[in-house]
Amino acid sequence: MDGRVLLAPPLIPMTLFRLMVAAALLIVAVPSVRAQLADPQDIRAGAELFRQKGDCQACHGWAGDGQKMNNEMPDGANLRETKLDRNDLITTIKCGRPGSGMPAFDKFAYGDGRCYGLKQADLKARGLTVSDPASPLIQREIDNLADFLFAKVIGKGPVTRASCIEYWSADIDLCKSLPN
User: Would you state the pLDDT for residue 124?
Assistant: First the structure.
């Protein structure tokens, strides 16, 4: 060595490094970008599925915070704090969680091994069951439900009066007790 200090690596490794950093940033940003780009109509449709057809609020609570509305229903996860990415959330909605109260909303989930590579016989052999959903959902509905959850629930922190009013489309008594 002649005593000179190199301040930067050679050009090719630096270019490769920059590409790797850009790829990592894209991987991290894609789920939140999808939620930001979701069509408002799809988000509204997802909210309706959460409230009505899927009846998700019965276990997860109207705010998705795990404060269920019906004590006869299983305890649902706090979706406001979930660490699931979009793909894992969709898989959970489709396939449920065998052995827990989370139903499989894909009506063929364990008929052909599409969920976790398991069929109904595999679940039975392991002593596991999967709850039946209020109503099965098709792929588009599952996507809309995920759009709603990422746009309005996941990572949004504690529920506020404003989010309560938005959810119920009115300033009901329940909303009046929440912080602004």
Answer: 96
Asked, for residue 2, whether it belongs to a domain, the answer is: no
Residues 24 and 113 in one domain: no
- Residues 87, 126: one domain? yes
Maximum C-alpha span of the chain: 78
pTM given for the model: 0.77
What does the alpha-carbon distance between residue 102 and residue 76 come to, in Å, rounded to a whole number?
Answer: 7
Output the DSSP codes for 59-106: HH-TTSSS--S-TTSPPPP-TTS----HHHHHHHHHH--TTSS----S
Tell me the pLDDT tens digit for each residue of 99-133.
999 999 999 999 999 999 999 999 999 999 999 99
User: Domain of 73?
Assistant: 39-176
* Radius of gyration of the chain from its Cα atoms, rounded to whole angstroms: 22
Tokens representing 70 are: 């019906």
Residues of the chain under the 50 pLDDT cut: 6, 8, 29-33, 35
Cα–Cα distance measured from residue 137 to residue 46, given in angstroms and rounded to the nearest whole number: 11
